[in-house]
Amino acid sequence: xxxxxxxxxxxxxxxxxxxxxxxxxxxxxxxxxxxxxxxxxxxxxxxxxxxxxxxxxxxxxxxxxxxxxxxxxxxxxxxxxxxxxxxxxxxxxxxxxxxxxxxxxxxxxxxxxxxxxxxxxxxxxxxxxxxxxxxxxxxxxxxxxxxxxxxxxxxxxxxxxxxxxxxxxxxxxxxxxxxxxxxxxxxxxxxxxxxxxxxxxxxxxxxxxxxxxxxxxxxxxxxxxxxxxxxxxxxxxxxxxxxxxxxxxxxxxxxxxxxxxxxxxxxxxxxxxxxxxxxxxxxxxxxxxxxxxxxxxxxxxxxxxxxxxxxxxxxxxxxxxxxxxxxxxxxxxxxxxxxxxxxxxxxxxxxxxxxxxxxxxxxxxxxxxxxxxxxxxxxxxxxxxxxxxxxxxxxxxxxxxxxxxxxxxxxxxxxxxxxxxxxxxxxxxxxxxxxxxxxxxxxxxxxxxxxxxxxxxxxxxxxxxxxxxxxxxxxxxxxxxxxxxxxxxxxxxxxxxxxxxxxxxxxxxxxxxxxxxxxxxxxxxxxxxxxxxxxxxxxxxxxxxxxxxxxxxxxxxxxxxxxxxxxxxxxxxxxxxxxxxxxxxxxxxxxxxxxxxxxxxxxxxxxxxxxxxxxxxxxxxxxxxxxxxxxxxxxxxxxxxxxxxxxxxxxxxxxxxxxxxxxxxxxxxxxxxxxxxxxxxxxxxxxxxxxxxxxxxxxxxxxxxxxxxxxxxxxxxxxxxxxxxxxxxxxxxxxxxxxxxxxxxxxxxxxxxxxxxxxxxxxxxxxxxxxxxxxxxxxxxxxxxxxxxxxxxxxxxxxxxxxxxxxxxxxxxxxxxxxxxxxxxxxxxxxxxxxxxxxxxxxxxxxxxxxxxxxxxxxxxxxxxxxxxxxxxxxxxxxxxxxxxxxxxxxxxxxxxxxxxxxxxxxxxxxxxxxxxxxxxxxxxxxxxxxxxxxxxxxxxxxxxxxxxxxxxxxxxxxxxxxxx
Length: 965
Known about the structure:
Blueprint: H1 4-13, E1 17-19, H2 22-27, E2 41-44, H3 48-61, E3 65-68, E4 83-86, E5 94-98, E6 103-106, H4 112-119, E7 124-125, H5 138-144, H6 151-154, H7 157-160, E8 161-167, E9 173-180, H8 181-187, H9 193-205, H10 208-217, E10 247-249, H11 250-254, E11 263-270, E12 272-273, E13 278-286, H12 289-299, E14 306-311, H13 312-317, H14 322-325, E15 337-345, H15 348-364, E16 373-375, H16 377-387, H17 389-392, E17 401-402, H18 416-429, E18 435-438, E19 446-448, E20 450-451, H19 456-475, H20 494-498, H21 500-513, H22 557-562, H23 582-587, H24 594-607, H25 617-623, H26 631-635, H27 642-657, H28 661-667, H29 669-676, H30 680-687, H31 690-696, H32 712-717, E21 726-731, H33 734-738, H34 741-753, E22 756-759, H35 768-772, H36 776-790, E23 800-802, H37 805-808, H38 814-818, H39 822-829, E24 832-834, H40 835-844, E25 858-863, H41 866-871, H42 875-881, E26 887-891, H43 910-919, H44 921-927, E27 933-936, H45 939-949, E28 953-954, H46 956-963
Parallel strand pairs: 2-4, 3-4, 21-22, 21-23, 23-24, 25-26, 25-27, 27-28
Antiparallel strand pairs: 1-2, 5-6, 6-11, 7-12, 8-9, 8-11, 9-10, 13-15, 13-16, 14-15, 14-18, 17-20, 18-19
């Protein structure tokens, strides 16, 4: 164990940071693979000098550096016990761009999709397109030689790499780029580490016997997805080594080397023209996977831009995700496999011809039973469904998971059907129902056995299945790693795949580049064992975690946390759209991702020696900036609901450590608002003072919401009884009752005009404030009272609707976990709606008279409340605000507003809260004209919009009320 003082000195010597606390070591112990190794420290270098300092430190102390960008690697490339070097934080700049030459030079921390956003105005793009493209980074793509769904048309990352600026293992720098054969020879004569590298390559590969051995043992040349070991076969095209090309480029050799040879600081890429403007996707349905693969060989003769496969297991996993379920619209029946076949052309008419010809060929050969054509924006939805397949596999309930070990095999396209037949025989032998999905057109399927790696017998199977599959791939002279890399899981099979002589060649080349084994030890050569250092201790005794909420739908809170497989969807940047994860978007710190929170909770619930396993400061820190937006409950393909787990953590932690005064005040706001409402004017005056804000820990910049002169419930008691007969119950939430009374009045006026008898009965508060502050005993009591009150009243004929989304949606979400009478809670939930949901249903049922509304024009922009987006959707808001026939309504992609109830008021969270707003929402609102109406259903959202932009946002209820004639 290294002395802490030594690590502190290292930290002080950098412009960036070196962190070695328990939390950060936990966060970086895993990636998206099945492996776990606690690193010595995590470094965040700011510049090249920092990297040189880290290399010198590692050399002196005989430790390894593990380079990392987004940490989405599936094979364990980012896992190690040295110093993890995260360049995703600071190495994020585009250094130069040449539109005419179609090249770009950038740092390794640029997100692939963000790069293409930059390139879009120039009609250029970077072709390789992984399923993680909205968060994976160019450095990682180069390290793994990634390819993705577009490789059949645009090739792999290696094809695009022109130059790599790198720091070598002795701290010297080198630029690897295309040079002539003569220049290569001259390099071998230099008395530098770079010169010795060139000399070693030359001396090794000049031998004809070595060249022949490579040709004999390496994958078939027509397999363009080839990433097993180092790409020494890339050199054989040079006229120096038996080929015909007069140039040679070591940068292409570095592609796929997983950071084991040099540390890349900038990368120059060749770009492509964007694809033709018009595309059509044919989603062919099949009754078996094998039929789909035979059909693939025929379909690939049609000049496809994409040819991807999803099997039934993947498709079934998407059923239980709120966001993914929306993208299943094209499915008919229950297919065993679906091929997504995309054609492109300059005009839609030309694309139609191509698609129809493709379908005709498939039908002529009796392939498939349904061939729908997908157009326009719907194509992206289908792509998203496939891309989310990796994460969706985490939705499998229990300990058996689809394991990444043989998921990266690639064979020649004509070999694929026979290869899969033999692969299925292996699976049948081990009684496995494997998962089949991804890049059928490229001869690569992401095949996954379903195993429980907590059990010894399945760990044994893990090795057996991997070994037999490797032997099968070798039989077909395929590549055991097509695009995901060797990492830990496949590296020890490299001698089998390329032969012992070639493996020893790789070891010697590694030695030439990195004599002290500084770079990413245990990957590709001298590999770590593939069945050791797993994420879970084998045959462990499962911890018994008692919770106040019901997590039985995931078999307990620990298994809910374990659903996170590390795919990193929570790291997607603002331009990727959606909401998850607002705190990460604001800070760009791994600590503030959904993944970090799930991993940290898993780590401590599993390994803590505390009586209360939640009693850890690391958990408090990692949950601190969670806004409980619930975006992860829908946008995370694995449905890792961090907001619910945070509430449980806060409860468990505070039960041991006590509840703070501020949390007590915020959680019990209903009690104190009742007192304050006795003299609201005085209360408002006092709470607006600096002293009161300081006492409550509220940011001085904030305006404290003002209590209304009279509560909605008191106002309602004085109103005459409605003569309308269609009964609807209003949940008089604590926010509308005390603060937003005018909106409540607008609701009554609107519903009266529309023919409804809107009623309030005596009920409890929603419990939202209790839940958000972890006062779950109090929340449970409120929940049980409300369930008892409403269980015999709320029906399809007399539904319960709400004004404030975060309050009414507790009935659909938290109440199901908290209620003692769960059956009644679930029955109520079926007939609980936001105001917008209810009116949208009534509109569809033709129960709304649109003649009651104005015909004047108005431009309306809707900012959806996070809980609406996650739990019920915002399309209903769009529908109801379109009732006035000349209203122009737009749902804006605005992410999270950043207020999140009391979060944005708390002084230590104010800056992050405002940054979340600045990430997406505020700039858009500021750009709208003064006569554009901003609609926001959430009370926190409206306050945040005003604080951040000085624009007044209105509840949709108010906008519709004002639209009445």
